[in-house]
Amino acid sequence: MRVAKLMAVGAIVMAGLGVGGVASADEPCTYGWICVYGNNDFNWKMVSRGGGYGVANIAAVYNDKMDSWRNTNATRDAAWYHNSSGTGTCRTMRRASSDNNVNFSDSDKLTSWRTDVGC
C-alpha cells in the first residue's frame, strides 16, 4: 500500500514538472517578424520587429543577453551587431531561418540590430 502511494505521488510530481517545462519552451515568433531570445532554444523572447527597419540599439535591459533568434520573414535578411549603432562584428539572420544556440563567440553579444538587410 505504501509503495502504491509513493508511486502515485511520484507520478503527480513528474507530471507537474513536465507541464512546467513545456510551458516555458519555444516561444513563437509572428510570421514575417524577426525575434531575438535571451536563452537557447527560443526561450525568453526579448524583442521582435517586422522586416524593413534600419539600425536600432537594443533596449539596455536586453543588451548582451541574446542566445537564439528567428527570422520568419520570407523576403528579408536581418542583421545584429556586437556594438551599438550597427558597428562591430555583424551577423546575418537569413530570411526564413533561425539559430537556436548562437556560436559561443557571439553568445550574449547583441547590442544593435536591423531588419531591412543582412550584413
What does this structure look like?
With 119 residues, this protein is an alpha+beta fold. It contains 1 helix and 8 strands; from the N terminus they run αββββββββ. The strands form 2 sheets. Strands 2-1-4-7 form a 4-stranded antiparallel beta sheet, with no helix packed on it. It has a 4-stranded antiparallel beta sheet with strand order 3-8-5-6, with no helix packed on it.
What is this structure's SSE topology?
Blueprint: H1 2-24, E1 33-39, E2 43-50, E3 56-57, E4 68-71, E5 78-81, E6 90-93, E7 97-99, E8 112-114
Antiparallel strand pairs: 1-2, 1-4, 3-8, 4-7, 5-6, 5-8
Structural class: alpha+beta
Radius of gyration (Å) = 19 Å
> What's the β-strand tally?
8
* Main sheet strand line-up: 2-1-4-7
Mean pLDDT: 85
Largest sheet entry: 4 strands, antiparallel
Order of helices and strands: HEEEEEEEE
Estimated helix fraction: 10-25%
